[in-house]
Design brief:
Layout: E1 4-6, E2 9-12, H1 16-27, E3 32-35, H2 44-47, E4 52-54, H3 69-80, E5 97-99, H4 102-114, E6 119-121, E7 125-132, E8 135-143, E9 146-151, E10 154-157, H5 163-167, E11 172-174, E12 184-185, E13 188-191, H6 200-212, E14 224-226, E15 232-235, E16 239-240, H7 247-271, E17 279-283, E18 293-295, H8 303-306, E19 315-319, E20 324-325, E21 333-334, E22 343-346, E23 358-360, H9 369-375, H10 378-395, H11 403-412
Parallel strand pairs: 1-9, 2-3, 2-10, 3-6, 10-23
Antiparallel strand pairs: 4-5, 7-8, 8-9, 11-18, 12-16, 13-15, 13-17, 14-15, 19-22, 20-21
Helix pairs in contact: 1-10, 6-7, 10-11
The structure holds flavin-adenine dinucleotide (FAD).
Residues 12-18, 35-38, 43-44, 47-48, 50, 52-55, 97, 125-126, 158-160, 163, 184-185, 187, 236, 288-290, 362-363, 376-379, 381 line the site of flavin-adenine dinucleotide.
Length: 417
């Protein structure tokens, strides 16, 4: 039996950006469909155990919240399940992020989607896009019963890797000016560790000792995302460059990184204070990709500009996270935005230049490599997702859009622009 789903707005990807896009499009009155290939929503928060929401706040001791709306609602619901959503700045980096147990992200996203009018599908993989002269007509998807189509007037690519744009045959960017991307990492959960924050210098010291003792440690710095006052956390250190997204490359990547995890476990058990009885609980499931394809938008954000915290009239979201670059095995480079400051994200950064009805959200929006080091974080992803959803819902297949109308609806939905 043929299965054809028709809607106003179709969203690909159920991470922070895609869930926000779908909920926002639906709130704006569009019949909305959300497609996700994993068996749960959350994107890298749940599928790669990236267990801290960055980008909700500015830097500084007395920081300000820069993302509200749907992202703000996710935080409030996480708080109901015991998450501390008013954290102190990290002793390691000075940044402010909300650490969580990913099981509650799954629960909160299920709740919010079930309460909405969004039609959502897990276990659904997009494998083909019909693009007629820049007008996207259809996504073809597959599940264990066969194939089905999703036809829409407007589309949002929130797939992280710009898969919708790429499969539509539209050119994308990859990495920096030399085509180099940041490292990707396979986070793993560790239990039976001290309840306090474990700071970067003590991790680096332990890894140095492990390396000297002959344990093959590759990346010598990084973080353990701690759920404060609990005896577990998530280590994001095992890393490598992912040069392409084909199955062969990703198979090698997963096996390489899974192998690395056991070296870090041994290093922590032997050399990290209080971790003698540390237990490895789970890895991944999937490698977390920091940087892959990005769209070419009508506008582009540049890292050198955003660190001066510019504000623009066509802003649809606020970015508060200082660009963070993971390119080396020995340091993580931050380029700081001043304390209590944020930059505007213009609507044009979400609009795919070579398509008429295609918007983008999350880590694939139109930026250079340095600005990506900021906007890719999930707090900002909720904000660009909400904006892309509203833009798609209010524009549908019209070739022109009204920035003011989109901004008004975002404010109406409680977003900070
Ligand atoms: C190791 C690591 C540590 C990080 N640390 C932090 C941190 O501490 N805090 C923070 O905020 N951010 C952090 N980030 C960045 C952040 O995790 C990502 O940039 C963010 O998850 C991007 O959100 P997104 O919604 O754009 O995409 P994703 O979270 O990648 O979600 C995209 C979704 O699209 C789905 N999808 C893709 N293609 C298809 C298809 N063809 N069919 C169906 N579904 C599809 C995927 O399954 C996925 O669920 C980190 C990233 C990494 C890798």
């Amino acid at each position: 039996m043929e299965r054809n789903i028709k809607c106003d707005v179709a969203v690909l990807g159920g991470g922070a950006a895609g869930v926000a896009a779908a909920l926002a499009a639906s709130k704006a009155g569009a019949k909305t469909v959300l497609i996700e290939r994993n068996p749960y929503f959350g994107g890298q928060a749940t599928n790669s155990q990236v267990t801290a929401y960055c980008g909700f706040f500015t830097r500084g001791e007395n920081y300000d919240q820069v993302v509200e709306g749907i992202g703000g609602e996710v935080l409030k619901r996480l708080e109901k399940y015991g998450t501390n959503i008013h954290p102190k700045p990290s002793k390691s980096t000075g940044n402010v992020s909300v650490s969580f147990n990913p099981e509650y992200v799954k629960l909160v996203m299920d709740e919010m989607l079930k309460e909405s009018d969004v039609e959502y599908y897990l276990h659904a993989q997009m494998y083909e896009v019909v693009n007629e002269n820049g007008m996207i007509k259809q996504m073809k998807c597959t599940d264990d019963e066969g194939t089905f189509t999703v036809e829409a007037k407007a589309f949002v690519d929130a797939s992280g890797n710009a898969n919708l744009v790429h499969f539509a045959g539209i050119k994308t960017n990859w990495g920096d000016a030399e085509g180099k991307v940041q490292q990707s990492s396979l986070p793993f959960r560790i239990d039976n560790i001290p309840a306090r924050e474990i700071i970067k210098p003590e991790i680096e010291e332990a890894l140095k000792k492990a390396k000297e003792a002959g344990i093959p440690i590759q990346k010598e710095t990084g973080l353990i995302i701690k759920i404060l006052d609990k005896d577990y956390g998530y280590c994001t250190i095992p890393s490598t460059i992912v040069p392409a997204l084909d199955a062969k490359t990703l198979t090698e990547t997963e096996m390489n990184l899974r192998g690395q995890i056991h070296n870090y476990v041994e290093a922590f058990q032997k050399y990290l204070d209080g971790c003698e009885n540390l237990v490895l609980s789970s890895s991944g499931p999937c490698v977390g990709i920091r940087e892959a394809r990005r769209i070419i938008g009508e506008k582009t954000l540049y890292g050198e500009e955003i660190i001066t915290a510019p504000k623009t009239d066509d802003s649809i979201a606020r970015g508060g996270w200082s660009p963070e670059m993971h390119k080396s095995n020995t340091n993580i480079k931050y380029t700081h935005i001043p304390d209590n400051e944020y930059f505007s994200i213009p609507l044009g950064c979400l609009k795919v230049k070579d398509a008429k009805n295609l918007w983008a959200a999350g880590r694939l929006i139109s930026t250079d490599s340095l600005a990506l080091g900021s906007v890719r974080v999930m707090g900002t992803g909720f904000a660009t997702g909400q904006a892309a959803g509203v833009a798609a819902a209010l524009t549908l297949d019209n070739e022109t859009y009204d920035v003011k109308k989109i901004q008004d609806e975002l404010v109406n939905q409680g977003a900070l622009i």
